[in-house]
Amino acid sequence: EVQLVQSGAEVKKPGESLKISCKGSGYSFTSYWIGWVRQMPGKGLEWMGIIYPGDSDTRYSPSFQGQVTISADKSISTAYLQWSSLKASDTAMYYCARRSRYFDWFDYWGQGTLVTVSS
Amino acid sequence: DIQMTQSPSSVSASVGDRVTITCRASQGISSWLAWYQQKPGKAPKLLIYAASSLQSGVPSRFSGSGSGTDFTLTISSLQPEDFATYYCQQANSFLPLTFGGGTKVEIK
């Protein structure tokens, strides 16, 4: 069974750093792209970027380029999303999702990680 | 960027109703479109891919159609578990992938 399991909710202060994770299982982790999607409170879905764990090839949405870093450790089948300096506007639910093998839709999703940034 | 515009933003319907949601792309995307369902507090779920292909395990009352710039998601007979928010997503270009604004299907 394909599963993406994300790390737990985080509460941080502005200016702090953060790295959240997404662990894949039940499939060949290195053979599928993993994307990250933001959902701000009460709002829609925004694609942030995507990584191919096989070679760490990474693409970012222009809206998120320079704001976050996406990485992966294929030895432990885990993808990451990190911030070096959080802002209150980063408060949101963050989902990881597996891109289908050959096309740019997402067939499996993690359960989401809620990030709250507040002073 | 390819902009995706969904309409309506919300719809009130009763169990058994036929519900249609539309999605328009700002430029042609062939059939590179997916539909997702999201229930409150849950992750999105893939319903339809390639504009009209039903994802495994999704009930046949869901269907998708369209190509180019205009697409439709239809629920033929609304069930209680279908009350949710639905999003379209263009899958034509990585740079960047974009979602529609969502359509909330509410109980009348």
Describe this structure in words.
The complex is a heterodimer of chains A (119) and B (108). In chain A, strands 2, 4, 5, 6, 9, 10 and 11 form a seven-stranded mixed sheet that branches. Chain A is an all-beta fold and 119 residues long. In chain A, a hairpin with a 6-residue loop joins strand 9 and strand 10 (106-109). In chain A, 0% of the residues lie in helices and 51% in strands. With 108 residues, chain B is mostly beta strands. Helix content of chain B is 0%, strand content 49%. Chain B has strands at residues 4-7, 10-13, 19-25, 33-38, 45-49, 53-54, 62-67, 70-75, 85-90, 98-99, 103-107. In chain B, strand 7 and strand 8 (70-75) form a beta hairpin. The model of chain B has no long low-confidence stretch (mean pLDDT 96). Classes of the chains: A mainly beta (119), B mainly beta (108). Chains A and B meet through strand 5 and strand 10 of A and strand 4, strand 5 and strand 10 of B.
What attributes characterize this protein structure?
heterodimer, A: 119 residues, mainly beta, 7-stranded mixed beta sheet, 4-stranded antiparallel beta sheet, 0% helix, 51% strand, B: 108 residues, globular
Report helical residue fraction of chain A.
under 10%
- By DSSP (H or I, 4+ residues per run), the number of helices of chain A equals 0
Provide a count of the helices of chain B.
0
Name the helicity range of chain B. Answer: under 10%
Instruction: Output mean pLDDT of chain B.
Output: 96
What is the terminal separation of chain A in angstroms?
Answer: 40 Å
Overall body shape of chain A: globular
How do you describe this structure in short?
The complex is a heterodimer of chains A (119) and B (108). Chain A is mostly beta strands. Chain A is 0% helix and 51% strand.
Write the topology of this structure.
The complex is a heterodimer of chains A (119) and B (108).
Chain A: E1 3-6, E2 10-12, E3 18-25, E4 34-39, E5 45-52, E6 57-60, E7 69-73, E8 78-83, E9 92-99, E10 106-109, E11 113-117
Parallel strand pairs in A: 2-11
Antiparallel strand pairs in A: 1-3, 3-8, 4-5, 4-9, 5-6, 7-8, 9-10, 9-11
Chain B: E1 4-7, E2 10-13, E3 19-25, E4 33-38, E5 45-49, E6 53-54, E7 62-67, E8 70-75, E9 85-90, E10 98-99, E11 103-107
Parallel strand pairs in B: 2-11
Antiparallel strand pairs in B: 1-3, 3-8, 4-5, 4-9, 5-6, 7-8, 9-10, 9-11
